[in-house]
């Protein structure tokens, strides 16, 4: 799998989805994948961010993480998205980026990309599954191949059992309630493995 190129694209306010992305990076690298972790551009005004200490601190802590470009999508064999839920849908920041991919889509540059997604919410039924599925709707339009974790490993049952992609509940203290690190790494490895099959089949 050493030739599989994985882009992990995330949006995070408090750091949860950044941490999920870093675990995905670790899991993928264990299989020898080349990995980029990139964030989507922030749309919120700076004064709004400044009023939230946790948000402000996270933005400062991740200021050196590069912002995603369309070139990253073209480069990647596989893509993992990690986003918080917003009323059962993806955040505007991620949607805005996805809405810029029309040129790549039109030219067939996104066909057969292997994709997977993760999410978080402040309660266990806060739209986590709907968020992942809403992101996958765009992926179907791309002609991408979705590598959901399903129940391909027992770790799925110890981390909440979401077959569409890892989801985690975040408490009021900002800390993750479920232990999902192993599940994230499994999902990343599965995504890289499937991308390796696709890449080999296209050679």
Automatic annotation (TrEMBL):
The record places domain Flavodoxin-like at 6-192
InterPro entries, per database record: Flavodoxin/NO_synth, Flavoprotein-like_sf, Flavoprotein_WrbA-like, FMN_Rdtase-like_dom
The UniProt keywords, alphabetically, are: Oxidoreductase
| TM region(s), chain numbering | none
EC class name: oxidoreductase
Q: Which PROSITE patterns match?
A: FLAVODOXIN_LIKE
Quote the Pfam families the UniProt record gives: FMN_red
Q: What is its EC number?
A: 1.6.5.2
**What span is annotated as the signal peptide, if there is one?**
none
Q: Read off the SUPFAM superfamilies from this record.
A: Flavoproteins
* Gene Ontology molecular function: NAD(P)H dehydrogenase (quinone) activity
Q: Which family does it belong to?
A: Belongs to the WrbA family.
- Quote the protein name from its UniProt record: NAD(P)H dehydrogenase (Quinone)
Question: Which source organism?
Answer: Evansella vedderi
């Amino acid at each position: 799998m050493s030739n599989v190129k994985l882009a992990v694209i995330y949006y995070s306010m408090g750091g949860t989805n950044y941490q999920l992305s870093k675990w995905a990076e670790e899991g993928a690298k264990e299989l020898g994948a080349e990995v980029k972790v990139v964030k989507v551009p922030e749309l919120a005004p700076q004064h709004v961010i400044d009023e939230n200490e946790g948000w402000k601190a996270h933005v400062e802590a991740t200021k050196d993480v590069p912002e995603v470009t369309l070139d990253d999508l073209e480069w990647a064999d596989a893509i993992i998205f990690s986003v918080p839920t917003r009323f059962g849908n993806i955040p505007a920041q991620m949607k805005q980026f996805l809405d810029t991919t029309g040129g790549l889509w039109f030219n067939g540059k996104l066909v057969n990309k292997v994709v997977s997604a993760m999410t978080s919410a402040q309660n266990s039924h806060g739209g986590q599954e709907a968020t992942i599925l809403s992101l996958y709707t765009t992926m179907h339009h791309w002609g991408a191949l979705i590598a959901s974790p399903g129940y391909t490993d027992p770790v799925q049952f110890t981390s909440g059992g979401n077959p569409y992609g890892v989801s985690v509940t975040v408490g009021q203290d900002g800390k993750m309630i479920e232990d999902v690190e192993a599940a994230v790494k499994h999902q990343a490895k599965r995504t890289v493995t499937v991308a390796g099959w696709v890449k080999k089949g296209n050679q």
